[in-house]
Write a structure and sequence with these properties.
Mean pLDDT: 89
Strand content: 35-45%
Distance between the termini: 27 Å
Number of helices: 4
Structural class: mainly beta
Number of strands: 30
Helix content: under 10%
Number of domains: 2
Radius of gyration: 31 Å
Length: about 425
């Protein structure tokens, strides 16, 4: 078995071959510096042209939570607008045990059930107040200043913040995760009148400094049957709702933002022909590498968290994904389609990272995407011109993450110098 190996070595290398030991494959066959690995941090000015954050994706009416705030961090106020559809009929068993439809139920009591997300809320206790609404409002477009804000129609509240009217009830949340606010029969009757444009409620807090994240408030009703007065029917209703808040944020801004409701996304414009970018070899004078000629083993964005505006730090940990943006001349950049996620941070970013300066840098690995960025146009089907940072996962936050402008890029590469045979 060994004779052909030694013969081949002698013919090709004139005695330069050696037999490898089982534990040292390749030992001595290549010079020590034939293959090198380098790590670089590339400044944003070398691979990016600009970044911009766009807001107003989705709306508070589409959120699976609501927010109640009163002068939180001295600036943030938020209230919940609620509207319930009271059933005109109920199904009951009559005195003979037959299931029948009762078209004249008598609603005599109810309560609003508010579940507090204690992890995402900031106050140890707060008093919740439920008021009647005094003006009609559009669930999809209402804001703190406007009760209707649709195309061509803008109708302001007579009092910003939902124009709350008569107090329906109050209760104080101190422990646990639930607070109940009693609703009387007269209010239920008013909510049942579909001809009333003012039917509905405004839920807020009278305790300054609070920011409470809540599950959608449900209405528990109790009705007595007209067919069988001894029968009481209990039901739970989900609301038509939205939450309104101040101060409102701009439509776009020149620093990276991710997350929030409405959601923010950051778009970054890449420089052209990144495959021609050259970098100096660390520790080797006179050595440079053209990034299109090396093997990229690892690539990641380096994001520096910054304090979000007062009142708007995320209330829950934030996850971030990297996507390629696909611009089109037929669409504004803000509406450009996205690829599936091409990079994702490991774990989540805690809310504290956006509350004070000096938070640790967040690394967002996206090796395959970075490889494509530094490929020559002829070597791949598509070289992206833009990338976008979006919130990842199904959990939405009200607050958003803010980052230092123009992130750097960390890459680890391997290169080999050409070997000449004698």
């Amino acid at each position: 078995m060994k004779r052909w190996w030694w013969t081949l070595c002698a013919a090709l290398f004139a005695g330069a071959c050696t037999q490898d030991s089982p534990t040292e494959a390749g030992s001595g066959l290549l010079p020590p510096d034939a293959i090198r690995t380098f790590e670089f941090v590339i400044g944003p000015e070398r691979y990016l042209q600009w970044d911009t954050a766009f807001g107003l994706y989705s709306a508070t009416s589409e959120a699976d939570y609501t927010l109640i705030a009163n002068d939180y961090e001295g600036v943030l106020n938020s209230r919940v607008l609620l509207r319930y559809s009271i059933p005109r009929t109920i199904s009951v068993l009559d005195t003979l045990g037959v299931l029948r439809t009762d078209s004249m139920p008598a609603y005599f009591a109810g309560d609003l059930r508010v579940l507090i997300d204690t992890i995402a809320s900031t106050a140890p206790s707060a008093t919740l107040d439920l008021y009647r609404t005094t003006e009609d409002w559009d669930r999809q477009t209402a804001t703190w200043q406007l009760r209707v804000d649709s195309t061509g129609v803008q109708l302001p509240w007579s009092q910003p913040g939902g124009s709350p009217g008569a107090l329906i009830g109050s209760n104080t949340w101190e422990e646990g995760d639930t607070v109940l606010v009693a609703v009387d029969s007269l209010t239920i009757a008013d909510w049942a009148d579909t001809t009333s444009v003012t039917r509905g409620a405004v839920l807020g807090s009278s305790t300054p400094g609070t920011r409470l994240r809540t599950v959608l408030p449900t209405l528990r009703l109790r009705a007595r049957s007209s067919l069988n007065p001894d029968t009481v029917v209990e039901m739970t209703l989900a609301p038509g709702r939205t939450f309104i808040y101040e101060p409102e944020q701009p439509d776009s801004i020149g620093v990276p933002r991710v997350g929030g409701t409405p959601a923010w996304r950051t778009v970054l414009r890449l420089r052209e022909r990144l495959d021609t970018l050259t970098v100096a070899c660390p520790g080797i004078p006179g050595c440079t590498l053209r990034l299109g000629d090396v093997s990229i083993n690892y690539g990641a964005l380096l994001l520096q968290p910054m304090p979000s505006p007062p009142g708007f730090a995320p209330e829950l940990p934030l996850n971030i994904a990297l996507h390629a943006l696909l611009p089109s001349d037929l669409l504004p950049l803000i509406r450009s389609p996205l690829t599936p996620a091409l990079g994702l941070i490991r774990g989540t970013i805690p809310p504290s990272s956006f509350m004070a300066p000096g938070a640790p840098i967040v690394e967002l690995p996206a090796t395959e995407f970075v490889r494509v960025l530094f490929s020559a146009p002829n070597d791949v089907d598509f070289v992206p011109t833009h990338m976008a940072l979006l919130p990842a996962g199904s959990t939405r936050t009200f607050g958003f993450g803010t980052f230092a402008e123009m992130p750097s890029l960390r890459i680890i590469v391997t290169t080999s110098r050409e070997l000449q045979l004698p």
